[in-house]
Amino acid sequence: MSPGSLTVIGLGPGDPRYLTPAAAAALAAAQDLVGYAPYLARVPERPGLVRHASDNRVEVERARHALALAAAGRRVAVVSGGDPGVFAMAAAVFEALEAGDPAWRRLAVTVEPGITAMLAAAARAGAPLGGDFCALSLSDNLKPWDVITARLAAVLAADLVVALYNPISRARPWQLGAALDLAARHRGPETPVILARAVGRPDEALRVLALREARRAEADMATLVIVGASTTRLIPREGAAPFVYTPRSVAPAAEAAR
Amino acid sequence: MSPGSLTVIGLGPGDPRYLTPAAAAALAAAQDLVGYAPYLARVPERPGLVRHASDNRVEVERARHALALAAAGRRVAVVSGGDPGVFAMAAAVFEALEAGDPAWRRLAVTVEPGITAMLAAAARAGAPLGGDFCALSLSDNLKPWDVITARLAAVLAADLVVALYNPISRARPWQLGAALDLAARHRGPETPVILARAVGRPDEALRVLALREARRAEADMATLVIVGASTTRLIPREGAAPFVYTPRSVAPAAEAAR
């Protein structure tokens, strides 16, 4: 039996033009594809490629299945949107690996990075992540809401740009509003907020709003939200959306005045 | 005169296998390449491609030059390693654009995202960014050191994974040590620290150390440092480096005990 392998692959934001050649090569080498059905649908069919589609929110079961296939000698690819290491499948695979059959530790397990949503959204808007920034998941499925708000308050007080993943879902309808209310206690009402939906896909929509307006904006599971720092700026343009960027510099005086 | 354009392109970590097709297409369409000399050297020569290499730490001058070329009708590509929006050229371009000729606001300016160093380093190590995380630049060339330490203390107290860009240079030899000392006041001595040097390049070197050992490790300008959260774990393996990952979950009890 040939030794099996498992690669966790980042497909990027959706457009194949953002799929790295390394990720494409790993997909081409795979015998089994494991992942959430909408991500699997992005990978073209070919003879001999076996697909194992699963629902959302069964990440560890999906990871165990992938590891078992690899242990049986298959070349397995677990696919994620964006980067697999950012609120996606890579951590689930290592959770399953650590808790599972000790033999799984001898498998060749690799991760292929991808363009994560905040990088794609930032590129579309300008350079909003130009200073220090953080990425927080607003989902309280896996951590208590009070941990989320404590973290959010800390990074807002420290004046980081904040990228919010998983801002909202049908089961979590109020969390984004609560997070924006908290942001409004640390940032001025004109602070730029970017709502980037489905960047790199045909239904892409990018909105740049002032924080005071963002509270009333529509968002969904496919939306990535970026809340600017106190220094984040808009460059208005005639007949086009403004550029949004965060300068690289922080002035001592600006900091003291915060 | 044809209308000029400017694209800020992320080359990724170095290996062409991490260059996205979108970035490759933008490079192929460019007439003028502007950037720090080592990044320009990654782009193959071709007839008609004009190179404008510059030294490090002249980002805004470089950006102004690129915008002036575009305003003169050229198709200009500004190249950065990694992602251009993460501690790289995109913010400098928008700083120059805002401060410069108002006509520059009518130029077609776009940004092509890339695999930034922390994603490449994380993928090599496992999934250390599997929970909430932040990216901080340790360079005090553009912001006061007390802002850097205040931000670092805040994100450490909030138990985020911390990716440190620009950790050290000949002109800034002590900042990384000071940052690791600060980390040691918030994290246990066994907390995993990843020192990822030149990921995706022939001289790539990845080290996973305990925080208590990391203080004495060598690092340089090409190193990206990731300090784990309190929950970040190692999976030991026989005859191979351990996997490093941060579980997606935060338990209420673990948080209370922090």
UniProtKB/TrEMBL annotation, chains A, B:
* Domain of life the protein comes from: Bacteria
InterPro entries (UniProt xref): 4pyrrol_Mease, 4pyrrol_Methylase_sf, 4pyrrole_Mease_sub1, 4pyrrole_Mease_sub2, Cbl_synth_CobJ/CibH_dom, Precorrin_MeTrfase
Stretches assigned to the Tetrapyrrole methylase domain: 6-213
Pathway in which this enzyme or protein is active: Cofactor biosynthesis; adenosylcobalamin biosynthesis
Its keywords, alphabetically, are: Cobalamin biosynthesis, Methyltransferase, S-adenosyl-L-methionine, Transferase
Pfam families xref list: TP_methylase
List residues traversing the bilayer.
none
Has the keyword Coiled coil been applied to this entry? no
**PANTHER family the record matches:** COBALT-FACTOR III C(17)-METHYLTRANSFERASE-RELATED
Protein name, as recorded: Precorrin-3B C(17)-methyltransferase
Annotated source species: Methylobacterium crusticola
